[in-house]
Automatic annotation (TrEMBL):
Pfam families linked to this entry: HDOD
Domain HDOD stretches: 18-213
SUPFAM superfamilies cross-referenced by the UniProt entry: GAF domain-like, HD-domain/PDEase-like
Lineage, uppermost ranks: Bacteria, Pseudomonadati, Pseudomonadota, Gammaproteobacteria, Pseudomonadales
Species the sequence originates in: Pseudomonas benzenivorans
Superkingdom, natural source: Bacteria
Name of the protein in its database record: HDOD domain-containing protein
């Protein structure tokens, strides 16, 4: 069955796919806003579904919600010990997880559900600073912020497959692809379901809190944005801006605000595990310091772009050193700085001839993941017909761009040891010569991000190699 347009999707989701979830959400929200709501009324809602009751009790007995570990055997006891609002929250979250993750869930659904739980915990903890109550309501509003998209990925069938394929296409505009497949937007679908399920309070919290005059709505918005920015990295510009907003809102330092955000991410992992969705834990960005450090390095690589002024400055400095007495260390540092930061090549290595010209050994390296090269890289010099690419370029005294059609005939020279060191893909390689004297080989790639190399980068690579050779030749003549 193919659906198109907002009303068509609401009818499909309500009538065929999500009636049980809709009823539970409606009943729980009705109880939240009734002054006459009682323990018995909430218990009655849950006891209609034996499976839901058992899962709520399991979550209620978890160390996260019941640190005293007092045994809870009934819903009524859970409400007394844990609190009315917390049991309502647990019930709604269990219903959502149970409905959407019962079958083989799509990776898009799992990623979005993990992000929704992360947003919910971040939002509730922000609300804890600025509100004396309503924290659980904020949690639910953030959890259901992407309700339309969650239900689509959970129940969209073949049209979900169709959209997943469309979104995988390079350069695709996501909102346009969603509209083409669904005939509506995810935001409109969320608003339609919220209206259909009579969740007016959630709608106002989830999509109306862009300023601090509404603390509850603002907490939902801030928590949701933090969960999204975390996917870009804890040190991303978007995260820095949100941490600053949190610090201003709460009246704490940026460092304290960042620690609060990281603590909430750790808490979100515990919450997800508590709700029986442990497969989602790994989809919440890790706060491990080593992981963050690697993330920072990867971000630096992703942001590494050719810097023309820096490249020109390095070329000018090498030109000056070729015309006057220069220092070897300074020459090589300028070479690698120009290629890495100037030309935007992510990994660069100068491998010099060593041990009486019997092997290549790393002399200078630059870029993420190259520290092992400087300590361990060694490659025998091969003079036979079955040579490798390092010996080949040195013997033929030519720069080569491997991975393009012009060099396909040399692909067998990329031997297994070379692939083990550098991986698969494009790279530049050239001999470094001081006049006629063989110094070594220069290697460069952009394997970390996987970006293709460009003609402009190859031209710069050749120019840097030639100028460095002239510097070393001039230095040897003066020596």
């Amino acid at each position: 069955m193919r659906s198109h347009g907002l009303q068509s999707w609401i009818e499909r989701l309500n009538e065929a796919e999500l009636p049980a979830l809709a009823v539970v959400v409606q009943d729980l929200q009705r109880l939240a806003h009734s002054e006459k709501s009682s323990v018995k009324q909430l218990a009655d809602v849950l006891l209609r579904d034996a499976s839901l009751t058992s899962k709520v009790l399991r979550v209620g007995n978890s160390a996260y919600y019941n640190p005293s570990q007092e045994n809870i055997r009934t819903i009524s006891r859970a409400i007394v010990l844990i609190g009315f609002d917390k049991v309502r929250l647990i019930s709604l979250a269990v219903s959502l997880v149970d409905t959407l993750l019962t079958q083989a869930p799509r990776e898009q659904l799992q990623a979005l559900l993990a992000r929704s739980f992360h947003a919910a915990v971040q939002a509730r903890n922000v609300a804890g600073y600025v509100l004396s109550r309503r924290q659980e309501e904020v949690f639910i509003a953030a959890l259901l912020f992407h309700l339309g998209e969650l239900t689509f990925w959970g129940c969209g069938g073949e049209q979900a497959d169709e959209l997943a394929l469309a979104l995988d296409q390079p350069g695709i505009e996501a909102d346009a692809a969603v509209r083409a497949v669904l005939g509506t937007s995810f935001r409109q679908l969320t608003q339609g379901l919220v209206k259909n399920w009579n969740l007016g309070e959630i709608a106002s919290l989830a999509h109306g809190g862009s300023n601090q005059s509404d603390p509850a709505g603002y907490a939902v918005t801030l928590g949701t944005r933090i969960s999204e920015a975390a996917l870009e990295g804890w040190d991303s510009p978007a995260m820095e801006q949100l941490v600053e907003q949190l610090a201003d809102l709460v009246g704490i330092s940026r460092e304290e605000a960042m620690q609060q955000v990281l603590a909430s991410a750790d808490e979100a992992v515990k919450v997800v595990g508590t709700f029986g969705a442990s497969k989602l834990c790994q989809l919440i960005p890790s706060t491990d310091p080593e992981h963050i450090r690697r993330q920072q390095q990867q971000r630096e690589v992703r942001l590494l772009q050719p810097d023309l002024p820096r490249m020109q400055r390095a070329l000018q400095e090498l030109g000056q050193m070729a015309a006057s007495k220069g220092d070897v260390g300074l020459i090589l540092d300028t070479l690698l700085e120009g290629l890495h930061r100037g030309a935007g090549l992510e990994r660069v290595m100068l491998a010099v001839l060593a041990d009486g010209q019997r092997c290549f050994r790393a002399k200078r390296v630059s870029g993420e993941g190259t520290s092992d090269w400087i300590s361990d890289f060694e490659l025998p010099v091969e003079l036979s017909a079955q040579s490798h690419i390092f010996s080949y370029v040195l013997r033929h005294k030519e720069a080569v761009w491997m991975g393009v059609p012009a060099s396909y005939g040399l692909s067998e020279l990329v031997t297994e040891p070379i692939r083990q060191w550098f991986g698969q893909g494009m790279f530049f390689i050239a001999p470094l010569l001081a006049g006629k004297r063989e110094i070594g080989v220069l290697y460069a790639d952009s394997r970390v991000s996987g970006r293709a190399l460009s003609h402009e980068q190859f031209v710069a690579f050749q120019r840097f190699t030639q100028l460095t050779g002239r510097c070393l030749e001039a230095l040897s003549k003066r020596g």
